[in-house]
UniProtKB/TrEMBL annotation:
It comes from Lacibacter sediminis. It is a multi-pass membrane protein. One of its GO terms (cellular component) is endomembrane system. It holds the Pfam family MFS_1. This is MFS transporter. Its main location: membrane. PANTHER family: BYPASS OF STOP CODON PROTEIN 6 (PTHR23514:SF3).
Length: 421
């Protein structure tokens, strides 16, 4: 029963941050009108989010074992609850940057703790892989929910209206509920504490850095970086693409972007079933090839869009429904490679490894969003989304190399870290 409460708590924690973090695409669209900022300037919101994730993960991840997973998650939920309840009263571009910086700090703490906790509540590699996919699919359910929440608050008739900031009151309330659920749930961290008794916090930090130099971990880091670069470059700019290229109204632009989140959620749910039996490399390479094909088929369909703003769902062009289906094919990649790397490390290394996952994922997301935003502004939305083909090709090569290195056992990796090799 305790394990079930912990799993529910992990799902809820992820749900809250899914809505918050992935509101960045909607916010990028809105601040351009609300505060008269350019696309290039708006793209820095992704950097405020992702760089704070990366810096926090790098500096704090190795100390999470000492602090405790539960305490770390409670600190994160408390921080974000306060920020969400404050910002509607002081809405501005600067405060929006601060909100995403706080969200980045909170998510870094949550993700490291959640990923590490999975190792405590699952009993096998297959169960770990399956739970990771289900958890990540629920994350996308949160993203999907967020699109509709924000779209319901947008005023299509007044581009300068900031009433959409009231959505953050709802997020603040959800964070409080998540805090109370976790606070009243017991998490057995004794196995981690026993492994940490003989080590100082500086030892943990050094061991996290040593992990980077293991070939298996190094290839994984690049794989995670390029995957998130692809995902965030599309997710953060899809609402703007819908509005500027497909000529949809603001609320429709946000709502149609939710198809991407829904397809990722469905894809990860299906992957949670398929990857129990199928070879993960074959599944992921096929998915990436399908994603690249979809880009080549869908983006050319945007060339004949008329200049009339679309306000009705019945008038939305077909490509607005087709392109977001790329999420089905991108969906399994991130949770699968995360599970592979974590299940090849002993449980007491999961906190440090989770920190590295969060750091390089954040750097990938920030890089992808900024590059896409600047290409979008200089060359248009079609060129910006064609750009995703480059990291897709790179990622296929990295996954093949990752698979070849993967058969290392947890014991071998642990010995190498301790030995400093």
């Amino acid at each position: 029963m305790t394990n079930l409460r912990i799993k529910i708590s992990l799902f809820l924690n992820y749900f809250v941050f899914a809505i918050l973090l992935n509101s960045v695409g909607t916010v990028i669209l809105q601040v351009q009108a609300n505060f008269d900022v350019s696309k290039g300037s708006a793209s820095v919101l992704e950097a405020f989010k992702d760089l704070s994730i990366a810096i926090t993960s790098f500096l704090i991840a190795s100390y999470v074992n000492k602090i405790g997973y539960k305490k770390t998650m409670l600190i994160s939920l408390g921080l974000i609850a306060v920020m969400c309840l404050i910002i509607p009263s002081v809405s501005s571009f600067i405060m929006t940057k601060m909100l995403f910086a706080a969200a980045g700090i909170g998510f870094a703490l949550i993700k490291v703790s959640v990923f590490a906790t999975i190792g405590l509540v699952t009993k096998s590699k297959n169960e770990h892989l399956s739970f990771m996919n289900f958890l990540e699919s629920f994350f996308m359910v949160g993203v999907l929910t967020g699109y509709f929440l924000f779209a319901s608050m947008v005023d299509n008739n007044d581009p300068k209206s900031t009433t959409w900031f009231n959505t953050y009151y709802i997020l603040g309330g959800l964070a409080v509920v998540a805090f109370l659920l976790l606070f009243t749930t017991k998490l057995d961290e004794s196995s981690i504490k026993e492994a940490e008794q003989s080590k100082s916090a500086s030892d943990d930090f050094v061991e996290m850095l040593k992990l980077i130099f293991l070939p298996l971990v190094l290839v994984f880091i690049f794989s995670a970086f390029f995957y998130v670069l692809i995902e965030q470059s599309i997710m953060s700019w899809l609402p703007t693409f819908n509005k500027d290229v497909l000529q949809l109204s603001t609320s429709l632009s946000i709502q149609m972007a939710s198809i991407l989140s829904a397809s990722i959620a469905l894809g990860r749910f299906l992957a949670g079933l398929i990857l129990r039996k199928a070879d993960w490399l074959i599944v992921l390479v096929v998915c990436l090839l399908a994603a690249g094909t979809l880009v080549l088929l869908a983006v050319p369909l945007t060339k004949n869009i008329t200049g009339i703003t679309v306000n009705s769902l019945a008038d939305v062009p077909l490509v607005a429904f087709i392109f977001p289906l790329i999420g089905l094919f991108l969906a399994p990649i991130y949770p699968a490679i995360n599970s592979v790397i974590l299940s090849n490390l002993p449980a007491h290394r999961h906190g440090s490894m989770s920190g590295l996952i969060v750091v390089f994922s954040a750097l990938g997301g920030s890089t992808g969003s900024i590059i896409t935003g600047n290409i979008f502004e200089a060359y248009g939305g079609q060129t910006a989304f064609y750009f995703s083909l480059v990291p897709i090709c790179i990622l296929i090569v990295l996954l093949i190399v990752f698979k070849r290195l993967q058969p290392k056992t947890a014991a071998v990796v642990d010995i190498k870290v301790k030995g400093g090799h």
